[in-house]
Amino acid sequence: MIEIRAFTPADEDPVVALWEEAGLTRPWNDPRADIRRKLTVQPELFLVAVDDGPVIGSVMAGYDGHRGWLYYLATAPSHRGRGVARALVAEAERLLAQMGCPKVQLMVRPDNTGVRGLYDGLGYEPFDTWATGKRLIVDGPGGPSSSAP
Ligand SMILES: CC(C)(COP(=O)(O)OP(=O)(O)OC[C@H]1O[C@@H](n2cnc3c(N)ncnc32)[C@H](O)[C@@H]1OP(=O)(O)O)[C@@H](O)C(=O)NCCC(=O)NCCS
Q1: Can you give the pLDDT at residue 4?
Q2: What's the pLDDT tens digit per position in 55-103?
Q3: Which residues of 52-86 are buried (b: 16+ CB within 10 A; e: fewer)?
Q4: CB 107 within 8 A of CB 63
Q5: Structural domains of the chain, with CATH
Q6: Where would I find the beta strands (DSSP E) of 34-103?
Q7: How many Å apart are CA 49 and CA 82, to the nearest integer?
Q8: Of 29, 39, 75, 110, which is most buried, counting CB atoms within 10 Å of its CB?
Q9: What is the CA(90)–ligand 1 centre distance, in A?
Q10: Is 84 near ligand 1, meaning CB less than 6 Å away?
């Protein structure tokens, strides 16, 4: 039976494997460092889907006091098309709404055009923005290093 629950430390290896299989990892994002950091900030919003044990889905949500954000939505290829992503997003939305979060949004990499239909179907409306960002901690092979003094 498929169940959605909060991430626990024992889920780390399967979750990293899931993200790699789903094509969500990038050389400049250390997934294990991402997990470690998430466990210090609203860890209850880091969700996994499990099917009688094994992890088969994930979503990492956060509320910054203005907007809710979703990251790392993934379903194992073996379990796609069965509503797992829909259930993960619904549970993340429920928890965000419970915190008083008025709007949830997410970023999709430009080459991931195939996934847009999923979000349309879940009631998400695209909006035009120029996204920009600045790295504060560089995740390197020797561990994270801060550019701050
Ligand atoms: C995108 C992804 C998470 C979808 O997972 P999933 O569990 O198969 O999705 P669901 O079964 O919950 O689908 C939910 C709804 O979206 C629809 N949908 C799923 N993928 C879709 C797509 N690529 N285009 C259009 N609709 C899609 C489904 O038909 C379903 O609609 P329905 O309930 O009306 O039938 C999965 O394909 C994946 O892990 N992809 C690789 C990682 C990725 O791209 N993540 C998103 C990063 S922004």
Answers
A1: 98
A2: 999 999 999 999 999 999 999 999 999 999 999 999 999 999 999 999 9
A3: eeebbbbbbbbbeeeebbbbbbbbbeebeeeebbe
A4: no
A5: 2-121 (3.40.630.30)
A6: 46-51, 55-63, 68-75
A7: 12
A8: 75
A9: 13
A10: yes
- Counting from 1 in the atom list of ligand 1, the atom nearest the Cα of 82 is 11
pTM: 0.94
In the numeric block, the tokens 């919003």 are attached to 45
137 Cα to the center of ligand 1, angstroms: 31
Q: Whose CA is nearest to atom 46 of ligand 1?
A: 73
Residue 141 has pLDDT above 80, yes or no: no
pLDDT in tens, 93-134: 999 999 999 999 999 999 999 999 999 999 999 999 999 999
Cβ of residue 118 lying under 6 Å from some atom of ligand 1 = yes
